[in-house]
Amino acid sequence: MEAKVTPTKSLNVCGKICPYPDMDTMTTLKKMQKGEILEVLLDYPLSVERIPRNLTKQGHKLISVEQLDGPNHRILIEAYGLK
Amino acid sequence: MSVLLSGLIVGILFGFALQRGRFCMNSAIRDTILLNDTTLLKAVITAVLVGMVGFATMAAFGLIKISPTPFFWGANLVGGFIFGIGMVLAGGCASGITYRVGEGMVGALAALIGLAISATLTAMGFLKPIKDYLQSSTKVMVGESNPTLANIFGLPYFSVALAVVIIVLFIWFIIAYNNPPAPKSKDSLAVRIFRKGWGWLAAGIVVGLINMLAFYASTQAGRSYPLAITSGWLTITKMGMGVPETKMGWDAWMVIGIVLGALIAALIAGEFKFRFPGWGMLAQTFVGGLLMGFGAVTSAGCNVTHILSGLPQLGIGSLVGTISIVLGAWFMAYIIFVRPQKA
Description:
The complex is a heterodimer.
Chain A: E1 9-12, H1 20-30, E2 37-42, H2 45-55, E3 61-69, E4 72-78
Parallel strand pairs in A: 1-2
Antiparallel strand pairs in A: 2-4, 3-4
Chain B: H1 2-21, H2 25-34, H3 39-60, E1 71-72, H4 73-90, H5 94-102, H6 106-124, H7 128-137, E2 139-140, H8 157-176, H9 189-194, H10 200-220, H11 230-241, H12 250-269, H13 279-298, H14 303-310, H15 316-342
Antiparallel strand pairs in B: 1-2
Helix pairs in contact in B: 1-5, 1-10, 1-12, 2-3, 2-15, 3-8, 3-10, 4-7, 4-13, 4-15, 5-6, 5-12, 6-7, 6-11, 6-13, 11-12, 14-15
């Protein structure tokens, strides 16, 4: 089911230090329309756990957290549309 | 030699727990205002409470002797505030940047080098007069001792420590009463320990227990203080510079152990990777480290010495140091993260 989701936008925050993966994700989501899908590629373990637990506070919806290889993860989020 | 080996072993355990628990006090403090996230803060408070009960019990049985950091309010305030600013720029507290070096984060390494350089300059270089002035002109003592929440009232440490733990737990219980319970994990214990990140409660308890072990082991080694970070890196830098009569102490072996422990944990979990944040970010973390080194030596403690090890001993110097670290971190987080979002 998850494989069928096509991201509207992709954000690569690999290599970034704390808390930029989280901040960049939230800032990007803010600029997106309701229902648009954001793909976040990241490799920072703390943010892999922290982004999913915080994005619902802004009303966004977590679609999936997928481990690619090692610390590299792909998170799919459906934007709430704050714009 | 065996006593110094205990420093290395405690460090490896600490580094392992820090990496698994994602235990970073910069995140704990900063995320409260930035992301409205208190997960890591709960881990830190748990570790402090476990330490408080543990130290009080161990001291009552004569296994350790409480050694609170000095209280010099000017140095604690200025040093703590600058340290707090620095750790937000560095993207990690003193223990955070140390364990993330073991995860392969190049930004953390730049911050650590900055911290080591400025800690050395503040301890024995051109910044020393500033530190000395701030410390000596504002030092307050209770008789021959450094002040604690217990001795300023003439009360025994054990009773005050337990009273503080009970009061904090009571307040916490009231605040968290309506929180939903954490979801149960379906993974096996081995997977939860070695592959997945730990929950805040497990991380807090384990770090607290390691700190008790650290206090006991370092007392056996003739050092008599729980976990600390900056002093270890300071010793290693001095060794590298060939400063005469510098010896690898318990705390120097301990910080090396942290990097090793985090490396082992990251390798087992498949989370090790060289991560380069870009030159601009590297410069920012380096500057953050420089501020942290000055702040830690001036305030006589980084976040670990003051928060993790100092608060459980009820030291007033650590209490003031902690408050200034928090204020410095919030100030900088507001400047570089919160304010730009509002614009």
